[in-house]
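Mods, move this if it's the wrong board.
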Amino acid sequence: MKKLLYITVNPKPEQMSTSKTVGRQFVNRFLEEDKEYVMEELDLYKEDIPEVNHILFSGRAETVSGDAYNALSEQDKKQVDRINALCDQFIAADTYVIAAPMWSVSFPSRLKRYFDCIILNNKVIKISPEDVQGLLDDKERSMVYIQSSGGVYPKIFNSKINHGVEYVEDIFKFLGIRKFKKILVEGVDIPSVGREAAISNAFADVDAVVDALTTDKLIQI
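Not the wrong board. Structure tokens:
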């Protein structure tokens, strides 16, 4: 079986979160269309996502091991184990879906903390004196980023406004995940659009992206 890793990044319950509402619609539709998949869910506001530091890491993107690990306190050992487990879970997935709101033209800090945990040397990247290479091109992988926002932003301003989308796309493609799709749930706080219409508009994009990923169509969303 293939694995879909569904990551949510919002402290609100699903019924109050626009990004989670659209995210749920997406994963449900995706699983209906592709029976090869099973899903794991990771709520970054409910799960333990360690904050990396010099105690847990021995060097650049490497958790401590060996004697250094044995010398840690039991609590710090648990944090190292958790980081490695999060990384292994990430590597095992075939398709990733992240649902997050736009906060401060980016995303909630919990998502960056998660990235710091899972981008590990010799697992997700390979660091050499000359360069850094992504290692996730070992199989076909796909990434879908679902972002909700209060406003509506013209495409011409995407690079200046949608920093979260740009960052996630850049990071995933660098890691070796070439197939990237985004679903923007825009205008949630604008009277002329509103939450319900924004969600309804996004559901059309959900159908298009699911079709693209499950039938290998090349479309632009």
